[in-house]
Amino acid sequence: MSDYCHLCDADPCYCGQHGKVASAPAPSGAARSGPRGIDPAMREFVLQRYEAGVLENWVGWLRLLEQQFGPDKGAVRNAWNRVSNQLQRDWLLIDVPEGDEKLRSPSHYPDVRHMSVEACSREIEALIERGGWTVGEKGLRLHEVWRRIPDVVYISVFDALHAMKDRGHLVTTVAPSGKPSQFWYVRAD
Fold first, then answer.
1. Alpha helices, DSSP H only, in 90-141?
2. CB–CB of 103/121 below 8 Å?
3. pLDDT tens track for 8-60
4. Is residue 147 part of a domain?
5. Domain range for residue 141?
6. Domain boundary among 108, 126, 142
7. Has this prediction a pTM greater than 0.85?
């Protein structure tokens, strides 16, 4: 059984409220990942600060964005997920798999590859074929899968895993118990 907490979006919970407070229902008209109204302002905030010399890792940017965009940490986190993913797709600011690096322009990480969904899917297939990720292994967060594929930008792995899951090819987010999960697994069938 997971100790995933919807309040702090962590497993295990770090806010201390897990199981004590029911999650608030999503407001009508909100996407599963929260309202999208702050995305353009958030993107502009990050790009302006980056151009002014601010260097942060993903979590550091999240903390700055929480200060800038208000008290609804869940909405800010969801928006930052979307915005940071799009910044990577647009090849403006990227994250690298070697630890806690700063998000920077791709020119700072010349060895990191931006791959098509098809090419990155082949990398994931190769990872599984060589035993780097196996059936029966405990579920992995997406960033844990990403760190097993050298020199590939996060968003390439994100997009490839989702495309593979949507096709029912090799990977799933359904736990061995049969329940939907936030974790990624190699399919047993």
1. 117-129
2. no
3. 344 554 444 444 433 333 333 344 556 678 999 999 999 999 999 999 999 99
4. yes
5. 117-186
6. 108
7. no
